[in-house]
Write a structure and sequence with these properties.
With 315 residues, the protein is an alpha/beta fold. It contains 10 helices and 14 strands. The chain has a 6-stranded mixed β-sheet, sandwiched between helices. The protein has a 4-stranded antiparallel β-sheet with strand order 2-1-4-5. It is elongated.
Length: 315
């Protein structure tokens, strides 16, 4: 497993031994994490791996059973109120009131943060323009599209200019055009602020732009590093094969290619060399035993699959 990279900037988030149980279920198991100020950090893992529970503990929404954490320099247990003031959060489910207008939602959110009415008005105008929603100030939220509502959720989450922003599956359920639109907005937001962003997402291509990512499995961090470095650790190429008797093919290929991931009648192998001449020769030898044969470059989705299966990237 990679040792976590040294963080040279001051830590915006620091957790040590963070643990959460729900009865007999261990949701987060001794999680230790450090994220530098201004970093864009991805927390990635399969459903039920502990991502949302981790965010909820760091955001002071639930209390850990053990361990400690600081967010923006404030202890989440001893100084939870100050920590909350420094945090913005966008939940998987929208926090907007659909019966209110865009401006009314933001006014309500600003008052909850004890912002002066003039400050609320000025920041609302700036953020709505930044997110392309300026003309919808008087529009009821119920009349907005799903992508617009998601953008407004983010505006609501950063209205008080938090030092740390938690994005928990911010584009879940959106189509590709709206997902891209949301990420353009987030990129603009990061260009205008030094905000630290912690992201969870099922869409692994969205994490390619992170400074660092950590993969979590069964409540424990199992891999950590820059996305490109993790992909490089996996290998130079991914070989995908499909055949009727895949188990026999895997048994024949594993001594030469190493461990594989199998799904039905498809198996994936890693190839660590740039030169694929041996793979081409192997394809010729197997001939009709293989229905399809594909060699491609790995990506973060492949890292995700290997980690989720409990396999080491450097095995």
């Amino acid at each position: 497993m990679n040792a976590p990279q040294i963080v040279t900037t001051p830590a915006a988030i620091r957790a040590e031994g963070l643990t959460k149980r729900y009865g007999e279920v261990l949701a987060v198991d001794g999680l230790t994490l450090e994220i530098g100020t201004g970093q864009f950090f991805g927390l990635l893992g399969p459903n039920g791996s502990g991502k949302t529970t981790t965010i909820h503990m760091l955001a002071t929404l639930i209390q850990p059973n053990a361990g400690s954490a600081e967010v923006a320099g404030f202890d989440i247990g001893r100084n939870a109120v100050k920590a909350r003031e420094a945090i913005g959060i966008v939940f998987q489910e929208s926090a907007l009131d659909r019966t209110l207008t865009v401006a009314e939602n933001l006014r309500f959110a600003g008052l909850l943060q004890n912002l002066p009415p003039r400050t609320i008005s000025e920041r609302s105008r700036e953020l709505l323009e930044l997110f392309g929603l300026g003309q919808y100030r008087a529009t009821p939220v119920a009349a907005l599209s799903g992508g617009m509502r998601r953008a407004l959720d983010i505006v609501r989450g950063v209205l008080h200019q938090p030092k740390v922003l938690f994005l928990d599956e911010p584009t879940l359920g959106l189509d590709i055009p709206n997902r891209r639109r949301i990420w353009r907005f987030i990129e603009r937001l990061r260009e205008h602020t030094s905000m630290t962003v912690l992201l969870t997402t099922h869409y692994l291509e969205e994490a390619d732009g992170c400074d660092r990512v950590s993969f979590i499995r069964k409540g424990r961090l199992v891999e950590c590093g820059a996305p490109r470095a993790l992909v490089d650790d996996l290998g130079k190429h991914i070989l995908e094969i499909e055949g009727a008797d895949i188990e026999r093919l895997v048994a024949r290929l594993e001594p030469k290619l190493g461990p594989c991931l199998a799904d039905g009648d498809v198996a994936m192998f890693r190839w660590r060399q740039e030169d694929i001449t041996e793979l081409v020769q192997l394809q010729s030898e197997l001939g009709a035993k293989v229905r399809s044969w594909r060699v491609r470059r790995p990506n973060l989705n492949d890292v995700f699959l290997w980690v989720a299966a409990g396999k080491e990237l450097r095995s």
